[in-house]
Backbone:
């Protein structure tokens, strides 16, 4: 253990390790997985055939990845199949730094095998996975999980405290801990040995990634969840850090992804921009951050703080400003994750969220804390039609008043368009025999491996394509 061999370096900045290794070539005969391409009016995630990828994802477990860590249990394939039937085609797995390492600093192989089993289960059900370095709070905060205790400055910060009756007072008491930890992490102001905290985290993932390398279900990795900056006069007055915090976050993102791609050249970076840790405006996006100039980068969007309802205006504005980087709406905020029975979003909230994503041609996620018992609102409303892969340039799609419509234009994408169409969305006892499928050209069929997926082989000579699915009219007596 490095911490046992070296004394702490106190208030002496520790330089970050230079990370400039080239991406590792993919294994022999391995197909490329996913990348970013300009499709139509904006950048999108596409697969190896050039098809636009649309994600309806589940955040599995709880924020910070608390012990015992594995929310999918010992039989992940069973739970993944349940989620697939509910319309999910992606999993976002919170992975705490603490869960990847033993107390002695070694790699926790049990955790690796759990994650590998999730990837295998996802592949078996045509799903993809994002592994997100996740935490809730910083060391010494009441209830904080995810970050190793050894990353806290013992004796140099406010000691751990028990929460009091006042929520506001408790939040104020957390601020010094957050100010200090994020300054130490982003700027290397302190470490428990002679390697920066950032580099310790990167080193853990560098050891993990060769064990996953080339896995077809692995879409991407998030370097760290919701990094904190303290903008304005508050940060100037109280933060122990100096310099440009958003730039420091971008530098960490670049170093992390460069190191990871030296282990797996195909893995995407799902980067979460810095948010404010100041007592006012907490959780809101901090200006000044730009993604590093790397290929295969997407932004993982979090709702500002804990919003009470579907964040319509924030999502619309984010899509309008997305530019050359795809946006994944990973944590919408209104679906507060908890294991309490009966909690979770309502049917109406889930429907509004999916309507919003459809209108923006966007990918989004919802929390499913316990996959064995998904929230009732998700069970009641999430299984509805949407395109999984679009072999062209999307024009629009919607599920409105029991009718699903998809329109797209031809492009150089190959392979077939795949659409999730659960007959149950058109009626509790509906089957394919009860549905009327109309296509502008080509042929369609039902995927023999998944009866909820329509496969459309469009005519390549046609420039515009249209699909409609609706209940079959009742026969005239």
Residues:
């Amino acid at each position: 253990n490095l911490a046992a061999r070296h004394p702490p370096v106190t208030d002496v900045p520790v330089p970050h390790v230079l990370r400039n290794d080239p991406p590792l070539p993919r294994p022999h005969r391995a197909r490329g997985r996913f990348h970013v391409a300009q499709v139509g009016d904006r950048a999108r995630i596409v697969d190896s055939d050039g098809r636009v990828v649309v994600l309806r994802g589940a955040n599995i477990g709880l924020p910070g990845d608390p012990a015992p860590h594995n929310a999918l249990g010992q039989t992940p394939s069973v739970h993944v199949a349940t989620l697939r039937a509910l319309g999910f085609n992606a999993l976002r797995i919170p992975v705490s730094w603490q869960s990847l390492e033993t107390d002695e600093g070694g790699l926790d192989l049990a955790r690796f095998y759990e994650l590998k089993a999730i990837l295998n289960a996802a592949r078996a059900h045509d799903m993809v996975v994002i592994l997100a370095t996740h935490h809730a709070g910083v060391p010494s905060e009441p209830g904080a999980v995810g970050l190793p205790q050894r990353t806290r400055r013992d004796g140099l910060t406010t000691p751990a405290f028990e929460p009091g009756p006042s929520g506001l007072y408790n939040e104020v008491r957390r601020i010094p801990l957050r100010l200090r930890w994020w300054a130490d992490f982003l700027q290397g102001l302190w470490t428990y040995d002679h390697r920066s905290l950032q580099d310790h985290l990167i080193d853990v993932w560098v050891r993990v990634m060769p064990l996953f390398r080339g896995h077809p279900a692995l879409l991407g990795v998030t370097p760290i969840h919701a990094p904190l900056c303290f903008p304005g006069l508050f940060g100037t007055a109280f933060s122990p850090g100096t310099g440009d915090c958003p730039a420091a976050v971008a530098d960490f993102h670049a170093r992390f992804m460069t190191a990871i791609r030296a282990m797996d050249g195909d893995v995407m970076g799902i980067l979460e921009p810095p948010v404010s840790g100041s007592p006012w405006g907490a959780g809101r996006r901090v200006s000044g951050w730009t993604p590093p100039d790397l290929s295969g980068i997407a932004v993982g969007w979090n709702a500002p703080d804990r919003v009470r309802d579907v964040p319509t205006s924030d999502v619309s504005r984010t899509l309008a400003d997305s530019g050359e980087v795809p946006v994944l709406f990973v944590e919408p905020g209104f679906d507060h994750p908890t294991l309490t029975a009966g909690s979770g979003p309502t049917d109406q909230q889930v429907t509004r969220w999916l309507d919003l994503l459809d209108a923006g041609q966007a990918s989004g996620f919802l929390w499913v804390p316990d996959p064995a018992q998904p929230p009732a609102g998700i069970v009641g409303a999430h299984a509805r039609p949407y395109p999984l892969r679009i072999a062209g340039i999307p024009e629009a799609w919607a599920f409105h008043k029991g009718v699903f419509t998809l329109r797209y234009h031809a492009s150089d994408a190959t392979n077939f368009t795949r659409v999730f169409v659960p007959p149950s969305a058109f009626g509790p006892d509906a089957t394919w025999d009860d549905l009327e499928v109309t296509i502008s050209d080509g042929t369609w069929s039902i995927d023999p491996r998944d009866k909820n997926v329509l496969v459309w082989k469009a005519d390549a000579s046609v420039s515009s394509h249209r699909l409609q699915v609706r209940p079959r009219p009742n026969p005239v007596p």
User: Anything to note?
Assistant: Residues 1-9 have pLDDT under 50 and may be disordered. The chain has eleven helices and 21 strands. The two ends are 80 Å apart (CA to CA).
